[in-house]
Amino acid sequence: MPGLLPLWATLFTWLISGERAGSQRLFGLALIVTGALLVEGLALSSALDGGKVWSGDLLYLFTPLSWAVFTSLCRRWEVGPVEATTGVSLFFAVALGLPYLIALLAGWVMSGFAIASASEILTQALLQGVMGVFVSGIGFMKMVQVFGSVRATMLTAMVPAIAAGSAVLFLDEPFTGMLGAGLICITLGIIAGVGGSARVAVKPGA
Predict the structure, then answer these.
(1) Which of 19, 22, 62, 94 is deepest in the core (most CB within 10 A)?
(2) How far, in Å, CA of 200 to CA of 192, rounded?
(3) Cα–Cα dist 63/16, whole Å
(4) Distance (Å, rounded) from C-alpha 178 to C-alpha 199?
(5) Domain boundaries along the sequence of the chain
(6) pLDDT of 51
(7) SS3 of 167, please?
(8) How far apart are CA 126 and CA 93, in angstroms?
(9) Mapping DSSP to helix (H, G, I), strand (E, B) and coil, where does residue 193 land?
(10) pLDDT for 10-40, tens place per residue?
(11) Which helix (H) or strand (E) holds 6?
(12) Which DSSP state fits 36?
């Protein structure tokens, strides 16, 4: 998802704000997407072995799509990082969290929540709720405010590279040539893309 986010962000920033990426930024974007595909090469190839795993992978395309629209609109409307993150968090807490809590208490859904310890619940609330949503959300939107939606999303392309590298270091997963090539492409793409210029389309008569 973070690897494809710059691609969608570039498209929607152009559609929404008229900001066109320069040749250097497009070159960096191509390197990032290539690197992301290389890093995920094993997962992509296994998804084609059979079954319906590919359908789940295909749904991941919609996640960066929605994030790209969100970041581009927040940039255009000049929504602050705290306001944007708080608004999204509260909306989904009411729209998704509250109905799930009601269904959980009514026994309509199966869950291990009742047998989880207080420390497990608090740890997940801190990591997944406070840090994973609120703190990281504010940090991401601050990047969008400072760097712009395209450059900010290019920086997030390091996520799959860091995750893959961490898996090699801490989980003893194999380091392959494809993974190494992907890490190099992503790094070079970020260097080229973040430093690249953008052109804002000027409307006739403006």
Answers:
(1) 19
(2) 19
(3) 18
(4) 34
(5) 5-200
(6) 63
(7) helix
(8) 15
(9) helix
(10) 888 888 877 777 788 888 888 888 887 787 7
(11) helix 5-17
(12) H
> For residues 144 and 16, what is the distance between their CA atoms, to the nearest angstrom?
15
Q: How far is CA 162 from CA 2, 136, 182, in A?
A: 11, 16, 11
| Residue 201 pLDDT | 45
Residues 162, 165: Cα–Cα separation, whole Å: 5
Q: Residue 108: CA atoms inside 13 Å, Cβ hemisphere, count?
A: 7
Length of the chain: 206
Pairing relationship of beta strands 19-21 and 198-200 according to DSSP bridges? antiparallel
The C-alpha atoms of residue 50 and residue 57 are separated, in whole angstroms, by 13
Closest CA to 164 of 191, 187, 182, 189: 182
For residue 198, what pLDDT band results from cuts at 50, 70 and 90?
low
DSSP 52-117: THHHHHHHTTHHHHHHHHHHHHHHHHT--HHHHHHHHHHHHIIIIIHHHHHHHHTT-S--SGGGS-
User: What tens digit of pLDDT does each residue of 172-194 get?
Assistant: 888 888 888 888 888 888 888 77
Cα–Cα distances (Å) from 22 to 14, 79, 81, in that order, read 11, 25, 27
How many other C-beta atoms can be found within 10 angstroms of the C-beta atom of residue 107? 8
- Per residue in 49-67, pLDDT (tens digit) is 666 766 776 777 677 888 8
33 token code pair: 């997407």
DSSP symbol at 202: P
The phi and psi torsions of 8 (rounded to 5 degrees) equal -70, -40
| One-letter amino acid for residue 186 of the chain | I
